[in-house]
Write a structure and sequence with these properties.
The complex is a heterodimer of chains A (about 110) and B (about 675). By secondary structure, chain A is mainly α. Chain A has helices spanning about 1-25, 40-55, 60-80, and strands at about 85-90, 95. Chain A contains three helices and two strands, in the order H-H-H-E-E. Chain A has a two-stranded antiparallel sheet. In chain A, helix 2 runs antiparallel to helix 3. The termini of chain A are far apart. Mean pLDDT of chain A is about 75; it is low at about 30-40. In chain B, the strands form two sheets. Chain B has a five-stranded antiparallel beta sheet with strand order 2-3-4-5-6. In chain B, strands 1-9-8-7 form a four-stranded antiparallel beta sheet, with no helix packed on it. Classes of the chains: A mainly alpha (about 110), B alpha+beta (about 675). At the A-B interface, helix 1, helix 2 and helix 3 of A face helix 1, helix 2, helix 15, helix 16 and helix 20 of B.
Chain lengths: ~110, ~675
């Protein structure tokens, strides 16, 4: 009899626990909202891995150059808070220089797409 | 406490049903209150299942034989550790154990994603809840561990003596942790399919879970092999039994997925394939459970035939229908934009690797199901044995072993000739040298020769990878060799932990190949008589019978034969094998007699003694086997587990989500491969 009562109490407690969110007002976050913002500085990790893979012979020089340029651009953008476009040199590709007018490698004027 | 446990099972079913209903409803109506209530439903289910489990354990420990389950699987004289492990020793208890693990995993999955993957989570919770509902309904209505007997027996039937083994106490929990671990990735896959959010997010969320499942399945399978070897007494560790196969199938698919996931991360390819693999791993886990529970295929491991098999068959069919519907209606969302650019590239190697894994899985599934298929087609139950499985899987396994060396070294996208030469010259030379050396030493078994050639090749590739990795770090960061090695592994756990697992695979294949040189000898000896036998390594062993003894232990009558063993004249000790007849607390025999094997183990080989019987004049009839390299199977399992731990070890948040760069690009598909 005591066990039966304990079982009933158990069921009621469990019900109260799961029904609680329906009885109180929830925060306005809708069910479909994205959750945590994207991780920061992921491009820098990628750049490290690109360098490492090149050193261990896993990436061809062509792929290395293409990837490095792409992730450097992304890393610069991440470091600037994601809203600033990187400078691009017509002959050397994406450049990491901040606020520069000319490419530090070949001297060509930089463009900001 | 027992009654509370019994009631908790029903409350758990109620909670899981609630969680399923409100989670799906919350997801569809985008109502946060319903989603939160569903998540609480999962936590509440866990709490109830824990209470139900404590109740059953209490009934077992207190020997409450009024419960059918307690009376069927334990007895008053059963040692405590096996009384506790009887929780998963029978049909109903093991289902409760399954539900306990599933509820635990579900709660962890819900909790760890409380701030992540919020668009997916209602459907993840709903799917997990649905699987829980199935298990809890089966427990409450089909196989209730709290079912009572009309009368209370004085003692229980006791545990099958073959299950009274330390390996058997820990092998099933590991296997269940692995089987059930496939459910969380399945739930994420279903959620991704429902919401059509088939980008990289769901993959990142499930990779860790797939690893957990793989890790426990690996340990569970190796422990099962060890149990079969030391307990069943037939001299081997793998017999392609349907239940063994059932555990191998999700392992194979999980392993394939852990490789192909990298192709999707790096190149955005194999999206349909990955979803299919995740879903298949779960379906095969349920299928394996169905095989063991239904009695549809006979096996040394299976549970008695019971209606639970029909429950599983129904659930399996329902899951297959839902999965096929979801995948076929989402094919357009699963289109891959990148294409395979070369058949000689990392992604191609992964593709071959996956085809082989799935090929092996298919052949194992086909061989396992063959008795049912043959009965349906020809009206005759034909069982295919180890020769079929070995004939198909040994060549496929050897190819897979070779790919274990090729995959990690080859470049992404397109491997150049210089890349191939640079990466493979040394390992290929080492492999061929091993082949020539072993052939010159007189080894003639073709499978073994190829095994050792590929094993050497792969092992050299792994060493080379560590060597090059350390070299690269030293050049890039100016670190010392030891620091570079430590950081190499610590900062690239996935890659280098993976290599450790590969090393374990190499060791395991080398150990498998050792069985080609196994030697069995049947001997009959009276007390004082001896026999001399030569092992595969050329040592001369002398076995002198010390006679047969008979005595009683706590819950068994024992007949033991002892041999005094020398190797090349040097004493190796006494080797004993027992025949055991288990008895209940009144001395009545229970179960068939079982065998306890005697083993003198070393790194080179096991000397394995099985007492087959005792004839007239107390002649001991025995089989003495020399089993080369068996201990390396267990060492390999250990190495693989260590590798798995390295890969799984928690990292900083950003590392956990980030998997490095994506997709070396071909100019033509520059925009296509973003995932």
């Amino acid at each position: 009899m005591i066990a039966m009562a304990a079982g009933t109490v158990l069921a009621l407690v469990a019900l109260a626990y799961v029904l609680y969110p329906l009885l109180v007002e929830m925060s306005p976050q809708p069910a479909g909202s994205p959750g945590t913002p994207p991780i920061e500085h992921s491009a820098i990790d990628a750049l490290r891995e690109i360098e490492f893979d090149r050193e261990t012979g896993k990436l061809s020089e062509t792929d290395y150059a293409a990837l490095k340029s792409r992730y450097t651009k992304r890393a610069v953008s991440e470091m600037r808070g994601g809203d600033v476009q990187s400078a691009v040199c017509p002959s050397c590709g994406v450049r990491p220089e901040l606020d520069a007018k000319f490419c530090s490698s070949c001297g060509s004027p930089l463009v900001f797409p | 406490m027992i009654l509370i446990g019994e009631l908790s099972l029903w409350v758990a079913l109620l909670m899981a049903t609630w969680a399923t209903t409100v989670s799906f409803a919350g997801g569809m109506q985008r109502r946060q209150d319903l989603v939160a209530s569903g998540e609480r439903g999962i936590y509440a289910t866990l709490a109830m299942v824990v209470l139900a489990s404590i109740g059953l354990w209490t009934a077992l420990i207190t020997h409450d034989f009024s419960f059918k389950y307690v009376a069927s699987f334990t007895s008053a004289n059963l040692p405590l550790v096996y009384t506790l492990s009887a929780f998963w020793g029978g049909q109903a208890g093991s289902l409760l154990f399954w539900a306990l693990i599933l509820a635990g995993y579900s709660a962890v999955a819900v909790y760890t994603n409380r701030d992540r993957n919020r668009a997916l989570m209602p459907y993840v919770t709903g799917t997990l809840g649905f699987v829980l509902v199935f298990f809890l309904a089966t427990l409450c209505l089909g196989a209730n561990p709290y079912e009572r007997l009309d009368w209370i027996p004085l003692d229980g039937r006791g545990m099958n003596p073959q299950l009274q083994n330390p390996g058997m106490a820990i092998h099933p929990p590991n296997l269940y942790l692995g089987f059930v671990g496939t459910t969380v990735p399945f739930a994420f896959a279903i959620a991704a399919l429902i919401t059509r959010r088939l980008d990289g997010d769901w993959l990142a969320a499930v990779r860790r879970w797939a690893l957990v499942s793989w890790f426990f399945l690996t340990i569970g399978i190796v422990l099962g092999m060890w149990w079969a070897y030391v307990e069943l007494g037939w001299g081997g560790y793998w017999a392609w039994d349907p239940v063994e196969n059932a555990s191998l199938l999700p392992w194979l698919i999980n392993t394939a997925f852990l490789h192909s996931i990298m192709v999707q991360e790096k190149r955005g390819m194999l999206r349909k394939w990955n979803v299919t693999l995740v879903v298949s791993a779960f379906l095969l886990s349920i299928f394996g459970t169905f095989i063991t529970r239904s009695g549809i295929i006979s096996s040394v491991h299976s549970f008695a035939q019971s209606p639970v098999g029909n429950w599983f068959a129904g659930f399996l069919i329902l899951c297959i229908v839902v999965c096929v519907y979801l995948v076929t209606t989402r094919l357009r969302d699963l289109e891959t934009k990148a294409e395979l650019e070369s058949m000689v590239s990392r992604e191609a190697a992964f593709l071959y690797n996956n085809l082989l894994f799935v090929g092996i899985a298919f052949s194992v599934l086909w061989g396992t199901l063959f008795p049912i298929i043959s009965e349906a087609v020809r009206g005759e139950k034909i069982t295919v044995g180890p020769p079929f499985f070995n004939a198909v899987n040994v060549p496929l396994g050897l190819l897979l072993l070779a790919l274990t060396g090729v995959g990690p070294l080859i470049a992404w996208r397109r491997a150049s000739t210089s890349n191939l030469r640079r990466q493979f010259a040394v390992p290929a030379f080492a492999g061929v040298s091993a082949l020539i050396l072993l052939a010159a030493l007189g080894m003639r078994d073709l499978s073994a020769l190829i095994s050792y050639m590929f094993a050497t090749f792969v092992f050299t590739t792994i060493l080379q990878e560590f060597y090059k990795g350390v070299g690269a770090r030293r050049r890039m960061y100016g670190e010392g060799a030891v620091t570079a090695l430590g950081r190499l592994v610590a900062r690239n756990r996935r890659r280098y932990g993976g290599y450790v697992v590969h090393a374990g695979i190499v060791v395991m294949f080398a150990a498998f190949a050792g069985l080609a040189f196994k030697k069995d000898h049947d001997v009959t000896l009276r007390a004082g008589e001896s026999t001399e036998l030569r092992d595969p390594f050329g040592h001369l062993w002398r076995f002198t019978s010390q006679g047969v003894s008979q005595y009683n232990e706590l819950n068994r009558r024992v007949v033991a034969a002892a041999l005094d063993v020398t190797r090349d004249g040097e004493s190796m000790g006494i080797l004993t094998s027992e025949k055991r007849q288990h008895v209940d607390s009144r001395g009545n025999p229970t179960f068939e007699p079982s065998t306890d094997v005697g083993i003198i183990g070393s790194l080179k080989q096991d000397v394995y003694l099985v007492l087959a019987g005792v004839g007239e004049d107390e002649r001991a009839e025995m089989r003495i086997s020399f089993n080369p390299l068996v201990v390396w199977v267990w060492i390999a399992g250990f190495i693989m587990a260590i590798g798995g731990l390295i890969v799984m070890w928690p990292q900083a948040e950003r590392k956990r989500v980030q998997s490095g760069y994506v997709a070396p690009l071909a100019p033509a598909s520059r925009d296509g491969v973003e995932v």
